[in-house]
Amino acid sequence: xxxxxxxxxxxxxxxxxxxxxxxxxxxxxxxxxxxxxxxxxxxxxxxxxxxxxxxx
Length: 56
Prior knowledge:
The structure is a single chain. The chain is mainly alpha-helical. It has a domain at 1-28. It is built from two helices and no strands. The N and C termini lie far apart (53 Å). The model has no long low-confidence stretch (mean pLDDT 79). The chain crosses the membrane at residues 6-23.
């Protein structure tokens, strides 16, 4: 295995581990916490799609 292959493997494992961490963080939250997040959720970019210009 070359150095580049090893670096790519390490990077892929790191990204996969981070994705797994984020998934488990959301999946293991109790239902009350999930409902609270959904009730207060906002657009990722802070846009209000109800307004024609898209500004808040």
